[in-house]
Amino acid sequence: MDAANPMTAAPPLAQRSRVRPSRRTADRVLRTACLLATLLGAVVLGSILLMLIVEGLRGLSPALFTHPTPGPGSEGGGIANAILGSLVLTTIGIVVATPIGVMAGTFLAEYGRTSKLADVIRFLNDILLSAPSILIGLFVYTLMVRPMGTYSGWAGGVALAIIATPVIVRTTEDMLRLVPGTLREAGAALGAPASIVIRSVTWRAASAGIVTGVILALARIAGETAPLLFTALNNNSWFNANLMGGIANLPVMIYQFALSPYPNWQQLAWAGALLITVTILALSVIARVVIKPQRAR
Amino acid sequence: MTALTDQIALTASQPATRRGPSKGGDAVFRAAAYGSALLVLFVLAGILGSIIYGGWPAFREFGFGFLTSSAWNIGTEQYGALVAVTGTLASALLALLIGVPISLGIAVYLTQLCPGWARKPVGMTIELLASVPSIIYGMWGLFIFAPLFARFVQVPVSNLVEGMPVVGTLLYARVPSGVGVLTAGIILAIMIVPFVASIARDMLDQIPTVLRESAYGIGCTTWEVVRHVLVPQASVSIIGAIMLGLGRALGETMAVTFVIGNANRLSASVFDPGSTIASRIANEFNEADGMQLNALMALGCILFVITFIVLIIARLLTRRVKAA
Question: Largest CB tally within 10 Å, which of A20, A166, B11, B186?
């Protein structure tokens, strides 16, 4: 891809005088439009970051990490319970999704390959990957919240796991497919059964890629709000390690506080928004750095 | 590696008792992989099943009229999907209208015009935009974009078109607050741009360089190369990418909930507040019970059907190219 770089930068029209003016104008318009479109993207990202930094830094204080969310109308407070709750929920999500995702990806790349079943599952996984997360929230609500009679941390974790799994399945399969078949054959020639070849040869060769998939999944679920509205909801009290009840979490906190009439709540929402965005952007950058050696190999 | 060498050592030292690696472990591993893959299937079926189960009472109560009624009255328990469905389709189509040209522009810039050193950082910036959570876009839309939009677009445009036929109703803001269907469309456009742009870029990158070079060789300008060589080559997969963006725009929840205004009113003006299926579910679900809950689930059903048709088409289009 990179080798083509010098070639892909369009050659300047050496003899401009011989190009008909209308063609030249069309060309210039296109070039300018493309540049503007790209600048627009950069400006929007810059504007979002600027907004978060300006509004969020104002609310950044030690109390943020030591105090729970305040009740309506009361002063001060922090978002410690929401941070902790988010950590717990994403941990549940990733811990549940990783083994399932990696094993399913392994099935698609190693066992299923070109079978009909693998084709169907691959297709459905791709659809699940871009399915609206709010529908996943409705599903977990029907599956867990309604029968249990209460919003719960467990339900939130499961909803996040369902969102994370297809991401991990997809990257695991893609990465395993990059492993040359000769490695597997070498393993098999030593008499190792398929499961051992996969575990100690293929997984190992693709480990960086698989880890990337998990980080990407983490970045994806860390900011998910819609499914948590119907599953984990929120809880203003200090986190009490009770996963059977509603549990505070950053995204829902941000949603409720940002739209609230209390200035200190709004301030907390901005601080939370800054925190969560920085975390997610950092995760995304890390994922791209991890994947690099894999590509170069 | 250690596992392998251990086994080799094992088999070498005990040639007589060698029974081979346990077949049991192998079968368990295989079963686990198989089971995990099937789980994906069950989850999707579960989503469909649970939403149909939840929405069924509403469909039975209101029948086909659920789709064509614009009522949403909690007091009289009359519910219809028309406003939410219209809002969903309108905001998503506006998003495509605004977002697709920008996405393609970015893709063309990144693959054709951008100097080599800037490709990585610019590409990464665009990709990072895709990972910003939707609630942040919602806050940006409501607190930064909407006031500017109201002041510099809604008010002047409303004043300009007031009284004109057609345009006067389409582009007139009764309350220029900055929130509304068009604002939602713009925010959605910003959200799908990085997504569509990066897929389109990958597709354009896959076109053999020879094609491009021969077009330049006969004296084509960049515009002509893009228009007559690159776009026709990648058209199917670009349409697939656009459909993926559409799927995302249709189901997007939090950002839209912030900026669409959440009104249950059918309005001809794109400046007026409305609601989408997802925003209505997000807004009302926690306080709903009884028939309202069923009606919301039924809305979820409709969203499921719409997005899944779009996503299936999208995946089929992007897949066909991969196979070819």
Answer: A166
